[in-house]
Amino acid sequence: MSDKTPQIDDMSKRSREVFQRVVEGYLETGAPVGSRTLTRTLSESVSAATVRNVMQDLEYLGLVGSPHVSAGRVPTQLGLRMFVDGILEMGDLGAEDRQKIDQTMGEKDTDVTALLDRVGSALSGVTHGASLVLTPKHEAPIKHIDFVSLSRERALVVLVFADGHVENRLFTPPPGQTPSSMREAANFLNAIAEGHTLSELDGIITREIAARRQEIDALAAELVESGAAIWENKGESTERLIVRGRGNLLTDNESEADLERIRTLFDDLEAKRDIAQFLELADDADGVRIFIGSENKLFSLSGSSLVVSPYMNADQKIIGAVGVIGPTRLNYGRIVPIVNYTAQLVGKMIADRS
């Protein structure tokens, strides 16, 4: 492989066309593309031997590889990245795809999570991949907080919001907690929390504990800090990530290696790991981002690709993300506008409701 990463502009017209045909053939069929097939599709008449020489050059550059002896070529991760960045032309969102996504917004559902669940199902159905939808944290002002002891090692923090929404979150309390320390912790929080959102409360708690250390028992202070960690931890609520359409990742002709990779991906999706990182993938992004293969470690992506876009609230703050995960031979030109449109639609829905 060359020490220098190859660039599309450095390639000859013939090399670029052969490379493009190899990638497009692979994305369409998932199979290696051979020289004889290419001679029938190239714009100029060339021999299979000439095409083989070009593909050898592309292989030397690390853009294509040969999965089997005497087989055709498939694009490498580097080749797919070059294709996506330099050659891929995005299609327009089809009317049928748009209609299926729009239909999810038709019901006047007061539960945002239920609506986003429908969005995830529609996105999975339209793209034939697995969809990922990260729901926003509840950002209404807090009305009341309470702690409930379930056992020595389990407790519940009950969050009541001003809009009537209630959340119950399990956590492991610091050792030695008593009914009185739990009451004191709840009283302390309720004195400072009302009217603030969870995001605002984190900094307030830190300041108030430091300023009023003498007024709060050490056990209660520890419980307050422990409870705050539960609701402010960026990866705290595994139910915030909605996964739909995992079965779409399986086909009838998967190799044993592919099946093992998909099983690992299923395990990660089931465990819903690295939820905060999923949002960070889209954070600070200008629209849709594409991650190919091992470009990031989220959800054991080796051999898979993720197309992801953030969505924003009325204040243009990123509060969630939508994405599609599938094999590296995703139809990027079709899926990117679908993900982009879905993210914009979800953002508008969230903004309108607020």
UniProtKB/TrEMBL annotation:
Keyword Cell membrane on entry: no
TM annotation in the entry: none
Keywords annotated in UniProt: Repressor, Stress response, Transcription, Transcription regulation
SUPFAM superfamilies xref list: GAF domain-like, Winged helix' DNA-binding domain
InterPro entries: GAF-like_dom_sf, HrcA, HrcA_C, WH-like_DNA-bd_sf, WH_DNA-bd_sf, WHTH_HrcA_DNA-bd, WHTH_transcript_rep_HrcA_IDD
Positions of the Heat-inducible transcription repressor HrcA C-terminal domain: 115-336
A Pfam cross-reference name: HrcA
Example GO BP: negative regulation of DNA-templated transcription
Domain Winged helix-turn-helix transcription repressor HrcA DNA-binding: from-to ranges: 11-77
Gene3D superfamilies named in the record: 3.30.450.40, Heat-inducible transcription repressor hrca homolog, domain 3, Winged helix-like DNA-binding domain superfamily/Winged helix DNA-binding domain
GO molecular function, one term: DNA binding
Family, per entry: Belongs to the HrcA family.
PANTHER family named in the record: HEAT-INDUCIBLE TRANSCRIPTION REPRESSOR HRCA
Function: Negative regulator of class I heat shock genes (grpE-dnaK-dnaJ and groELS operons). Prevents heat-shock induction of these operons.
Name used for this protein in its record: Heat-inducible transcription repressor HrcA
Organism: Yoonia ponticola
Gene from which this protein is expressed: hrcA
